[in-house]
Amino acid sequence: MKLSYPAIFYPWDEGGGYTVEVPDLPGCVTEGASLAEAIRMGVEAASGWILGEIREGLPVPPPSPIEAINPEEEDDGFVNMLVLDLEEHERKFGQSRIEMNLDLEVPVP
Theoretical Cys-Cys bridge with 15: which of 11, 66, 101, 103, CB 3.0 to 4.6 Å? Predict the structure, then answer.
């Protein structure tokens, strides 16, 4: 199954690296040291997020229209589509991939 989701790319390291946020998939955030790596990491993160929901029997949110996604203006972000191939992700990572959720308390000074 192939899906497309809009993602927001925020540059850091003077535009060398990017943080990637997929607004339709709560908590789906990753980064890459280059734009190409950020796109690859965004595809992997979003694919894993969706497959995790499917395995848990939870509904998968539909993708928003790209026009509905707006980056924070002060952060120089831009929106681009991520194309996800869930079968390819399953072949690549399969069930051997370990996924964990950690609930950590971070002390605030």
Answer: 11
Domain boundaries, the chain: 2-95
Is domain 2-95 classified as CATH 1.20.1740.10? no
C-alpha span between 64 and 46 (Å, rounded): 14
User: Measured between alpha carbons, how far is residue 6 from residues 9, 11, 40, 62, 109 in Å?
Assistant: 10, 16, 14, 11, 36
| C-beta separation of 22 from 82 below 8 A | yes
Task: Please name the residue that has the structure tokens 């390819």.
Answer: 88
Q: What span, in angstroms and rounded, lies between the C-alpha atoms of 14 and 11?
A: 7
What is the C-alpha to C-alpha distance for residues 102 and 31, in angstroms, rounded to an integer? 19
Tens digits of residue pLDDT in 77-101: 999 999 999 988 888 877 544 444 4
